[in-house]
């Protein structure tokens, strides 16, 4: 079957999709967007978390056909998504990663210390700065979930953070630095707002 | 980089890249430099092994046995092979050479089962198809007829008279000294006279402990891509802990010389020991060579539970004696580790369990024995803490019991018996670097305790999220009691018992765009621990450059050894440091040649490279590196070794077996709902000596991660094997539970830095020690809260409620 939906602000089409294929598979293997991770494909770890019409979902549990005509944001689009949110929205259909671009996917060397070559969402920068990334396999799913939390609640308590991220497993960090990262992003957000005199 | 021969295969469309870090980066060792791969990892661009992708690749799938021990009567692959989209189906009969087994130390593991299967989930056949689902469906059409055989599942069935032999034709070098062919290895440690010393004891305490089978549960599944080359060789992109160990095992099975199996490390989503053994490596190569097409294999979570070895479950019998004034008199203990169907790292795990069985305490008279069994249970091997974890669980429970019997404070009792620099280990080896056991306990005890009843919120009653049971809203605080427990542990660092534990580093220094740049190339597996960060820090410190490029790890450079045993920063970090020192000497040599006549300091002063310049130890600048290196590059590849170790005597266990020890102490605070048997860990504080924190941010992250894995095994993690069928009952994240952010408390960490003069920068391996003591600390706290004995991991509600 053919599935047409929006990924990171761009309309995409996938052809010859099997009935049983998950959104995760279509993103990773057909659209060249491997950022969403395949750690359990059982809905237990949250590594594959994406936004579907704004709602965080485990993309491994969503059948590809279910996303027909809908809107998906993955970790690859998180920086754009956050920037557009900050700027007050996206003129739909023109922002984000195109399929051509996506399929040309190549890891590009960057400088993570300075972020010189990359534009990151605040939560992404906070994960780097707080040391919340070790192997990083859980990171994309955590970032999407944490970004959604901060969108809803710009000064979450620790209990709020734990509740929001309880569907995302991390085996490396012990979560302490992930908490630090979310606190850091929230604090920077507040500073930013205060700086604007809002 | 020069010297890299042209690839015989076409590179995948998605593959690992260089990591370059420079700019305003905080520089050298001791700084909390951020990860050079951080940006790639937060943007989803980092190429993990399961992300490898090649234009016209096929998907491989492994068919695994549904029974634990059986003869294979027949395999029929015809229908599978006839499935549209299937390119190849392989069984044992298709293996290309006479080498059909592999293994880390003992080559007893079949690439594909031949004649019989020895454990549930053993690989039997392989399929390559154009879609993963096609491969899976075709595999389901392979018909296998099994004739089940009697099972070996524990020590009693393994050594019973007439017991079936798991490996009926053993020829390995341990067979000569083991008491039974179903025992992989046995290591006694006898020192002093435990029986005689026991007579001096005023109290004697014994206990029997059971440690469950833990899984590494790294998040990135076993996966990789094999690309056939035009020269008949193969390029393999894979997540592993030790490329060269894989290579040594893969090449003979494929019938290829090692140069024709070119391995590149692709992004590793955690390892924790679970990637020391091969998983899909040979399978993908076989399928790629057979089909002539790139083949990708990615395990799903279910298969991952069968795709790697687990932590050895153990039964431990311990007897300690002590005098009235609190001095330990002796230790007798016996540790039985279940190694499962194949040897994997069992011999080394036995060596660690026995030599560290006494813990970080002074006990002169010991009688220790550790064995590992062959059984039809899942194979067990390396996991963080490696043999020391199981022992620590038992000896720390014993310490509390002895202290209680003596009426002493458990921490003071431990401190009274704590080892220190100069203590002689039960192996006869003197401890020749700081061993601050009493100090770590003091520090962890001195941390402020979390306030009581934190779940009581002002005015609003209880915040159920902070209570045992959490959001399931099972209690509002009634029946909740608090307990506090302590534990400390000792772990060896590096490979022991005479292993030639070396690493290789290649460092190049040159001027690019007017800037001095260092390139570091090693075969070290970055599994998340942060080796890439530390290597760049070392290069900056030693070479005075800002910009450092870390090349992807591959087999084009010499072996780095394994990313395990807390050894990688010590050994490959040591290799990078050593190579940088030689590069520095050559750079200075060039400087002397070019500029030596201009300033006498070139010949007379101690010279350093700092801030892109050659400076004297007095701080005088002699030249810029850009001027010195202009047009020239220095490029060296060198091996580096730590101090040698010795094998342990097979009868007495005596020998200088370990190169370094690391120590961590924990204090656990728990709240237990005694009615429902639910445990909430409130805080798990840790104090650890790291010798020298090369990157404090990463050090703390490692300690917190290790602590959480120990917490997991204390209260939730266990692979459950049905004792009647030897089948795994819970191979999923639904049924095998690892701690979530709700299960994990705050983990304050106190880092102590007492340099080990024998180690590079004085550092001490850190990755494993925190995994040891966190489990017994949690158990001690639950015992403190409930008054129950609790001698098994994990503690389940039924153990607390007696139901
Ligand atoms: S991969 Fe989707 S929840 Fe684990
Ligand atoms: S950083 Fe490895 S799983 Fe979270």
Automatic annotation (TrEMBL), chain A:
InterPro entries: 2Fe-2S-bd, 2Fe-2S-bd_dom_sf, 2Fe-2S_ferredoxin-like_sf, 2Fe-2S_ferredoxin-type, 2Fe2S_fd_BS, Beta-grasp_dom_sf, Diverse_Oxidoreductases. One of its GO terms (molecular function) is metal ion binding. Transmembrane segments: none annotated. Residues 1-78 form the 2Fe-2S ferredoxin-type domain. Keywords: 2Fe-2S, Iron, Iron-sulfur, Metal-binding, Oxidoreductase. It comes from the Bacteria. The keyword Iron-sulfur applies. The keyword Metal-binding applies. This is Oxidoreductase.
UniProtKB/TrEMBL annotation, chain B:
GO terms for molecular function: iron ion binding; oxidoreductase activity. InterPro entries: Ald_Oxase/Xan_DH_a/b, Ald_Oxase/Xan_DH_a/b_sf, Ald_Oxase/xanthine_DH-like, AldOxase/xan_DH_MoCoBD1, AldOxase/xan_DH_MoCoBD2, AldOxase/xan_DH_Mopterin-bd_sf. Pfam families: Ald_Xan_dh_C (PF01315), MoCoBD_1 (PF02738), MoCoBD_2 (PF20256). Residues 43-150 form the Aldehyde oxidase/xanthine dehydrogenase a/b hammerhead domain. Residues 1-17 have a biased composition (Low complexity). Residues 1-35 are annotated as: Disordered. This is Oxidoreductase.
């Amino acid at each position: 079957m053919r599935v047409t939906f929006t990924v990171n602000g761009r309309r995409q089409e996938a052809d010859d999709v099997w009935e049983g294929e998950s959104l995760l598979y279509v993103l990773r293997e057909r659209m060249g967007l491997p950022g969403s991770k395949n750690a359990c494909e059982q809905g237990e770890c949250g590594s594959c978390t994406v936004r579907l019409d704004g709602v965080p979902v485990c993309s491994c549990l969503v059948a590809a056909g279910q996303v027909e005509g809908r809107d998906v944001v993955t970790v690859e689009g998180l920086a754009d998504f956050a920037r557009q949110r900050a700027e007050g929205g996206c003129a739909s259909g023109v922002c984000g990663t195109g399929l051509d671009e996506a399929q040309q996917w190549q890891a590009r060397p960057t400088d993570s210390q300075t972020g010189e070559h990359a534009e990151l969402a605040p939560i992404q920068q906070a994960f780097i700065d707080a040391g919340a990334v070790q192997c990083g396999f859980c990171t994309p799913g955590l970032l999407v979930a944490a970004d959604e939390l901060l969108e809803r609640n710009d000064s979450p308590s620790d209990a709020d953070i734990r509740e929001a991220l309880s569907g995302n497993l991390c085996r490396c960090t012990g979560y302490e630095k992930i908490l630090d990262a979310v606190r850091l992003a929230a604090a920077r957000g507040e500073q930013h707002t205060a700086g604007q005199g809002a | 980089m020069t010297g890299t021969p042209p690839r015989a295969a076409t590179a995948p469309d998605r593959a690992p890249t260089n990591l370059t870090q420079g700019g305003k980066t905080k520089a050298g060792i001791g700084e909390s430099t951020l990860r050079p791969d951080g940006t790639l990892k937060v943007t989803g661009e980092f190429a993990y092994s399961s992300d490898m992708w090649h234009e016209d690749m096929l998907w491989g799938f492994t068919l695994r046995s549904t029974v634990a021990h059986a003869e294979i009567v027949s395999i029929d692959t015809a229908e599978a092979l006839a499935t549209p989209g299937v390119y190849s189906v392989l069984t044992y009969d298709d293996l290309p050479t006479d080498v059909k087994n592999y293994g880390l130390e003992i080559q007893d593991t079949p690439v594909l089962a031949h004649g019989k299967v020895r454990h549930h989930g053993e690989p039997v056949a392989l399929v390559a198809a154009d879609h993963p689902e096609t491969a899976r469906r075709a595999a389901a059409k392979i018909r296998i007829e099994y004739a089940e055989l009697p099972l070996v599942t524990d020590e009693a069935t393994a050594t019973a008279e007439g017991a079936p032999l798991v490996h009926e034709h053993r020829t390995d070098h341990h067979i000569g000294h083991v008491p039974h062919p179903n025992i992989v290895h046995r290591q006694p440690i006898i020192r002093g006279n435990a029986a005689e010393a026991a007579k001096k004891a005023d109290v004697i305490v014994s206990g029997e402990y059971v440690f469950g089978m833990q899984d590494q549960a790294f998040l990135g599944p076993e996966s990789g891509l094999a690309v056939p080359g035009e020269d008949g060789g193969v390029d393999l992109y894979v997540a592993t802990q030790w490329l060269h160990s894989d290579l040594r095992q893969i090449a003979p099975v494929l019938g290829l010389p090692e140069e024709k199996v070119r391995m590149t490390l692709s992004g590793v989503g955690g390892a924790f020991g679970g990637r020391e053994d091969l998983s899909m490596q040979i399978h993908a190569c076989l399928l790629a060579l057979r089909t002539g097409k790139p083949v990708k294999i990615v395990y799903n979570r279910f298969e991952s539970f069968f795709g790697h070895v687990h932590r050895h479950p153990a039964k431990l019998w311990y007897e300690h004696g002590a005098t009235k004034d609190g001095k330990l008199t002796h230790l007798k203990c016996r540790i039985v580790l279940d190694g499962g169907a194949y040897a994997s790292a069992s011999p080394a795990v036995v060596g660690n369990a026995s030599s560290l069985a006494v813990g970080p305490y002074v006990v002169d008279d010991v009688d220790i024995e550790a064995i590992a069994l062959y059984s039809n249970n899942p194979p067990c091997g390396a996991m963080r803490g490696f043999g020391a974890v199981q022992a620590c669980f038992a000896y720390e429970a014993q310490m509390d019991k002895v202290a209680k019997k003596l009426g002493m404070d458990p921490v003071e009792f431990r401190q009274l018996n704590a080892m220190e620099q100069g203590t002689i280990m039960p192996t006869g080896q003197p401890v020749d670097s700081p061993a601050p056991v009493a100090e770590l306990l003091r520090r962890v005890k001195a941390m402020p305790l979390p306030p009581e009843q934190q779940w009581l919120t002002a005015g609003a009653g209880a915040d159920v999220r902070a209570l045992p049971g959490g959001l399931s809203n099972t209690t509002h605080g009634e029946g909740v009691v608090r307990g506090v427990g302590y534990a400390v542990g000792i772990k060896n660092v590096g490979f022991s018992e005479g292993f030639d534990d070396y690493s290789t580093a290649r460092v190049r220094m040159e001027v690019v765009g007017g800037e001095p740049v260092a390139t570091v190339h090693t075969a070290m597996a970055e599994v998340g621990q942060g080796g890439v960060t530390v290597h760049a820090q070392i290069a900056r410190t030693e070479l005075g450059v800002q910009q450092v490029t870390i090349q992807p790890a591959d087999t084009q450079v010499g072996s780095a050894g394994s990313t395990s045993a807390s050894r990688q920063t010590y050994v490959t970090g040591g290799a990078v440091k050593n190579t940088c020192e030689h590069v520095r000497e050559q750079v200075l040599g060039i400087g002397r040649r070019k500029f030596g006549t201009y300033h006498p300091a070139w010949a007379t002063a101690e010279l350093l490279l700092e801030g892109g310049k050659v400076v004297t130890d007095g701080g005088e600048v002699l030249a810029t590196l850009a001027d010195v290196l202009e047009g020239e590059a220095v490029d060296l590849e060198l091996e580096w070794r730590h101090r040698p170790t010795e094998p342990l005597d097979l009868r007495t266990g005596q020998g200088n077996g370990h190169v370094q020890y690391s120590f961590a102490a924990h204090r656990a605070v728990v709240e237990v709902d005694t009615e429902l048997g639910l445990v909430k860990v409130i805080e798990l504080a840790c104090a650890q000596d790291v010798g020298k924190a090369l990157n404090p941010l990463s050090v703390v992250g490692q300690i917190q991660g290790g602590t959480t894995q120990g917490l997991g095994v204390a209260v939730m993690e266990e692979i459950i094997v049905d004792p009647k069928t030897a089948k795994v009952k819970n191979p999923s994240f639904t049924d095998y539970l690892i701690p979530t952010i709700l299960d994990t408390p705050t983990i304050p960490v106190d880092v102590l830095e007492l340099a080990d003069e024998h180690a590079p920068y004085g550092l001490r391996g850190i990755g494993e020690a925190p995994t040891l003591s966190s489990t017994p600390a949690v158990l001690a706290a639950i015992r403190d809260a409930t008054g129950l004995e609790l001698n098994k991991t994990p503690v389940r509600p039924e153990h607390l409620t007696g139901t």
